[in-house]
Structures are given as structure tokens and as C-alpha cells.
Design a protein that fits this description.
This protein is about 70% helix and about 0% strand. By secondary structure, the chain is an all-alpha fold. The chain folds into two domains: about 220 residues, Rhopdopsin 7-helix transmembrane proteins (Up-down Bundle); about 110 residues, Arc Repressor Mutant, subunit A (Orthogonal Bundle), CATH 1.10.10.60.
């Protein structure tokens, strides 16, 4: 038991380290990062709770009883979205995905009386769990296994349907391994449920979860060079999608004609985060925001200066129509990009 406990402690430590790393690097708008964070959090929680029961420290902290139970209903959706986001790294978070949390909320509501009960009742509840399972353990345990089975089936189906799209870099490879490991955990849980429903045999789950944590740390921390190409590829795809949206609103909708256009307004117009838009412009398009927008404004000004129907307009009016909020800014940017001031260009 000491060896098992040590293994779980190592897995918990590794998963916490990786959780911190991913938290630091994530762009929370995308499922690619949110699914990883969710899965890591759930692994941490399950390992921590499993360690409490194996060591029987839950008896000294009975206020933590059943805290993890609602979260086990998030494991299935987290696995599915983990696989889905590896196939579609550009996929964004959508509000309708919150519907997957309904079982989590219902189970949480069910256990509110237990959470609010006196400490003596919680201690008695914990002690009874070490002797025999309660009715809610049987019912909720069964529902949890059914729910996870459904999500795993859909995740596996989606994974193999899109297998040809994989280039088998470490990002997609990790999705397949995680899917396989959680499938093993579910099969063992089903066996325990129907043949040997022993609460302490949950140590098997904790050991497998530790293996998942160690694998993820190996893939993300111990082999950063191998994983780098996968992350860069996914980041490139995300930025490519963002670039397409930026060019679309600039060329077709001409948002640059708005003199109040800034990074935040541009990001809102394409439904992307300001951070992603800035990163796309800087790293993908090799420009900065002002230069990008002013380039389009100068091109618009050149068109206006050459058009006979606008020949009666002053330079100030042309600058305003092109989206510049000052004549000095218009003159400076126009001369930088055309090597001529606007008046000379018109002549």
C-alpha cells in the first residue's frame, strides 16, 4: 500500500506541475486549451481524493466528503472535447457546451444536504463507506459509468472517423493514448461495479490516473522538443483562421474606414480574443496593428485621390473618408508608404 500511495503522490505532483504550465500558456477561448485544463483538473482532483481515501485521511477531513462526486460527471465530456479539439485545434468554446454540465449540477444539488450536515454525520457517513456502500453510491456510480461509456463511445467513434486527418504528431498521439487509458479505467470500473464493488479497490483507478498524469507530463514537459511541432502546428492553424477573418473584414467590410478602430474593436468584429488578433498580426502577418490598418487606409486614399468624382475634395476630406482621424497622421503614413505627400500624389 505504501508503494501505491507513493505512486499516486508522484502522479498527483506531476499533474499539478503540468496544470500550472498549461494555465500559464493557455488561450481560454479555444477548446484545445480548455479541454486540457479540464482534464488535468479532474485528474488532480481524483488523485487527491483517492489519496485521501487510501490513506484514510478523509476521516480527519470529513468536510471534503463527496466533493469530487459531481466532478466525475465532467470526465466524460472532458475526454470527448479533448479528442475533438485535437482533430479540430481551431475550434472555439461555445456557450451551448455548458449543457454538458447539467449532470454535474444535478448531482451537486443532490449532495447539498450532505455538504451542509453536521460534522458528526459526515464522519459517520465516511465510516459507513469503509464498511459498505450507500444506496447513492450504487445509483450515482451506475449513472456515472453509463454517462462515461456514452462519451467514450462517441469520442472513439470521432477519433477513428477522423484518423486520416492526423499527422501523428505528439498532440494527436496523446489524444489516442488518453482515450485508450480512460477506456481501460472505465472497463475496470464496470468490472468492479458488477462483480466486486469494493470502495478501496478504487486504488486501481488512482494508479491508472497517475499513469495518465505521468504520461502527459512526459509528453508535455519531458519531451518539449518533440511536442513543439505539434503545438506550433495547432497554433499556426488557429492563427491562420484568425488571419482569414481579419483580411475578410478589412477587404470586404472595410472596417479600417472607422477612425475609432483599435485592436479590441477589430477582435470583437471577428469574434476572436485581442491576444490572438495581436499574435496573428505580429507573428503570422509580420506586421503591427497600426501599420496593417494604415496600409489599407493609404490604399483607400490613393483610390480616392485618383478618382475624378472626388477631385473636388480637400486633402483633409480625403483623409477623413479613408479612416484617418488626423491630417498629420494621414500625411506621415501616406508619405512612408508611397514616398510622396498626398498633394504631390494627386498631381
Amino acid at each position: 500500500m505504501v508503494i501505491f500511495t507513493l505512486f499516486i503522490v508522484i502522479g498527483l505532483s506531476f499533474s499539478i506541475l503540468l496544470l500550472i504550465k498549461v494555465l500559464w500558456q493557455s488561450d481560454y477561448k479555444y477548446l484545445y486549451y480548455l479541454s486540457t485544463l479540464s482534464l488535468l483538473f479532474l485528474v488532480c482532483l481524483e488523485l487527491f481524493y483517492g489519496l485521501l481515501f487510501i490513506s484514510k485521511h478523509i476521516l480527519t477531513a470529513p468536510y471534503l466528503i463527496r466533493i469530487n462526486t459531481p466532478f466525475v460527471f465532467v470526465i466524460g465530456p472532458a475526454i470527448y472535447f479533448f479528442v475533438y479539439s485535437r482533430v479540430n485545434p481551431k475550434s472555439s468554446w461555445k456557450r451551448q457546451y455548458l449543457l454538458h454540465l447539467i449532470p454535474f449540477l444535478l448531482v451537486g444539488l443532490y449532495f447539498i444536504p450532505l455538504y451542509l450536515s453536521p460534522i458528526e454525520e459526515k464522519i459517520a457517513y465516511v465510516q459507513n463507506l469503509y464498511i459498505s456502500l450507500s444506496n447513492d453510491s450504487v445509483v450515482i456510480g451506475g449513472l456515472r459509468r453509463i454517462q462515461q461509456s456514452i462519451y467514450l463511445i462517441f469520442a472513439a467513434r470521432y477519433f477513428f472517423q477522423n484518423f486520416q486527418r492526423f499527422k501523428l504528431n505528439n498532440v494527436q498521439y496523446s489524444a489516442g493514448v488518453i482515450l485508450g487509458l480512460f477506456t481501460i479505467i472505465l472497463l475496470l470500473d464496470l468490472y468492479r461495479y458488477f462483480f466486486q464493488f469494493d470502495l478501496l479497490s478504487g486504488v486501481i483507478d488512482s494508479i491508472l490516473l497517475s499513469g495518465i498524469a505521468i504520461f502527459l507530463v512526459y509528453a508535455h514537459l519531458m519531451a518539449p522538443g518533440k511536442l513543439k511541432s505539434g503545438i506550433q502546428e495547432s497554433s499556426f492553424l488557429i492563427m491562420a483562421s484568425c488571419e482569414e477573418k481579419i483580411l475578410n473584414v478589412l477587404e470586404k467590410e472595410k472596417v479600417y474606414l472607422n477612425p475609432k478602430l483599435n485592436l479590441r474593436v477589430l477582435a470583437q468584429s471577428i469574434d476572436c480574443s485581442s491576444h490572438l488578433v495581436s499574435m496573428t498580426i505580429n507573428q503570422k502577418m509580420k506586421l503591427n496593428f497600426n501599420k496593417l490598418v494604415n496600409t489599407y487606409r493609404v490604399e483607400e486614399a490613393k483610390r480616392l485621390l485618383q478618382a475624378p468624382e472626388y477631385s473636388h475634395l480637400t486633402i483633409e476630406a480625403i483623409a477623413e473618408l479613408a479612416g484617418f482621424n488626423s491630417v498629420s497622421s494621414f500625411n506621415d503614413n501616406f508619405k512612408k508608404l508611397t514616398a510622396k505627400p498626398p498633394k504631390e500624389y494627386r498631381k
